[in-house]
Amino acid sequence: MIRRFLAASLIVWALGFVWFAIAMPGPEGDGTDGVRTDAVVVPTGGAGRIERGLQVLASGRSGHMLISGVDPEVKPREFAVQFKVPMKAMECCITLGYSAVDTRGNAAEIAKWIAESDFRSVRLVTTDWHMRRASGELRHVLPDSVTVVEDAAPSAPSLKTLFLEYHKLLASRLSWLWED
After folding, report:
1. Domains and CATH numbers, the chain
2. How far is residue 133's CA from residue 66's CA, in Å, rounded to a whole number?
């Protein structure tokens, strides 16, 4: 009986990993079309995330942007220079969030910013391999009245990255079960 349970668990785990690795989320439109949201939020940590968020903001599909988990050493002017963002856009439309250090912290920082700004819809931009966990963590702390649009920046993750992220996703989901 235990062997069957372990074998079935191994099969479910392996099929889940295959699904996770080959069915990664993709971009929402090309950044100039698709759903309009009140804001775009970008957790730091992966290549292409900030650039994708800035593309969405520049297209007018979102009016405000939060970059969550920015290193406290980074100042707005440095950010603007690095990503070629006009200071006018920094002053009106882009917020740098400094309090998050991990995905769960990103979700908390983003949820607080959304509540303070009274936004009703947000476009989450993160790397394709990170989207499921980041979206899940964010939806877990947001009220149901806030719409989350997923917009994944395509990448070419290594097998190691996929393996680690799959297990982080499983751990994240299990932790919610213990919370409730």
Report:
1. 21-179 (3.40.50.620)
2. 18
